[in-house]
């Protein structure tokens, strides 16, 4: 049951978004299958906002539901900096079907492709601002390229930068923009006639849009269908990553049998691929990533004792991507906190912040671990207070 503070937070979010839409309470209520009286009580925190009401409000205001439900993770100043960072990306994404404007100092396609790879590499190194800084011009340049001199390589590179835009937006909690970028990725991948890129998009969609177990499962199956006749190493890696996406979907639904089945399938494909396949679409598919996904599934299903054993058994390779390393460290912090090992939890949070500050700040697990430590540690270290302020608690 939501706490009074949670009711007030959701109600305040609804009021804020309603005012941004320049609607009165009565005007919004007229668009809902709920009464004006109920809306009024929800906005002031006196009544619980049901999931149905929240979904109806989001639909009526045409906003992403996360704007109403997700915990506040950034301060006002941080939000303004993030908005300034993502706005040029949003603008560039809107240019996809417009006639190209004249481009000065037009880069050759080979340079654009190299820059697309650089942007992807920066995200994996958790240098989100650096990637965001080059994405708008890169998207614009490749959009101009496919409209004036279309080629398979150009469409493939454009699909790749749309995927990178999705990754940046998702990591800083702009889920609405991440969804737009994924749609653009599918549009470009179709024109590149690249089944592996299209399947990667299905994998991403399954992770982002897990409203129901059925939807996530259908997206994973659609990706597998695209690769059913493919036998290349690239296809094996993407197929394996789809199984890892299915692990996350099944864990959210609490389907332990499905989790085990998809982990086994992914392990079988990893054995065929051999070693870690970080060179294929930056997916990092391999035994290490499978172990990290298994840990994430146990966390999602709240199997804390098993998760602790799993977390302490993982040994990250020296070449593990920074984004994967940070995710593991935050997951480890959550598990240590939930099993009563507060000092170890805090140490892993500190290490995650040192390794990847830009990503760690916005991972939901970071806030969960910090909040748990604040409420359970008798003598919280001074650094914990600083970290709580850092994430906006």
UniProtKB/TrEMBL annotation:
<dbReference type="InterPro" id="IPR010982">
    <property type="entry name" value="Lambda_DNA-bd_dom_sf"/>
</dbReference>
<protein>
    <submittedName>
        <fullName>Helix-turn-helix domain-containing protein</fullName>
    </submittedName>
</protein>
<dbReference type="Pfam" id="PF01381">
    <property type="entry name" value="HTH_3"/>
</dbReference>
<dbReference type="InterPro" id="IPR001387">
    <property type="entry name" value="Cro/C1-type_HTH"/>
</dbReference>
<feature type="domain" description="HTH cro/C1-type">
    <location>
        <begin position="14"/>
        <end position="68"/>
    </location>
</feature>
């Amino acid at each position: 049951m939501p706490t009074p503070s949670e009711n007030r937070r959701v109600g305040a979010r609804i009021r804020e978004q309603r005012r941004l839409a320049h609607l009165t309470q009565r005007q919004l209520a007229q668009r809902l299958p709920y009464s004006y009286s109920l809306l009024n009580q929800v906005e002031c925190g006196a009544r619980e906002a049901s999931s149905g009401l929240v979904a109806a409000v989001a639909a009526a205001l045409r906003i992403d539901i996360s704007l109403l439900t997700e915990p506040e993770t950034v301060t006002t100043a941080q939000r303004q900096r993030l908005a300034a960072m993502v706005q040029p990306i949003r603008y560039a994404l809107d240019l996809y079907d417009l006639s190209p404007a004249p481009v000065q100092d037009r880069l050759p396609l080979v340079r654009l492709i190299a820059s697309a790879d650089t942007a992807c590499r920066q995200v994996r190194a958790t240098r989100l601002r650096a990637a965001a800084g080059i994405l708008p011009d890169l998207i614009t340049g490749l959009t101009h390229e496919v409209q004036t001199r279309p080629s398979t390589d150009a469409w493939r590179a454009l699909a790749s930068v749309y995927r990178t835009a999705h990754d940046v937006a998702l990591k800083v909690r702009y889920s609405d923009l991440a969804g737009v970028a994924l749609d653009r990725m599918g549009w470009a991948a179709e024109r590149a006639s690249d089944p592996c890129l299209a399947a990667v998009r299905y994998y991403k969609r399954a992770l982002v849009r897990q409203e129901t177990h059925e939807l996530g499962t259908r997206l994973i199956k659609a990706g597998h269908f695209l690769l059913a006749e493919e036998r290349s190493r690239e296809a094996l890696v993407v197929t394996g990553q789809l199984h890892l996406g299915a692990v996350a979907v099944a864990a959210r639904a609490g389907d332990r049998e499905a989790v085990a089945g998809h982990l086994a399938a992914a392990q079988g494909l990893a054995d065929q691929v051999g070693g870690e396949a970080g060179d294929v679409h930056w997916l990092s598919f391999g035994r290490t990533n499978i172990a990290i996904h298994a840990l994430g599934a146990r966390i999602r299903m709240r199997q804390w004792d098993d998760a602790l054993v799993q977390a302490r058994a993982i040994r990250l390779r020296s070449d593990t991507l920074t984004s994967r390393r940070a995710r593991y460290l935050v997951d480890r912090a959550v598990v240590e906190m939930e099993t009563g090992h507060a000092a170890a939890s805090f140490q892993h949070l500190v290490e995650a912040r040192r390794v990847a500050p830009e990503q760690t700040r916005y991972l939901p697990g970071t806030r969960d671990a910090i909040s748990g430590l604040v409420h359970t540690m008798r003598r919280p270290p001074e650094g914990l207070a600083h970290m709580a302020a850092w994430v906006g608690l």
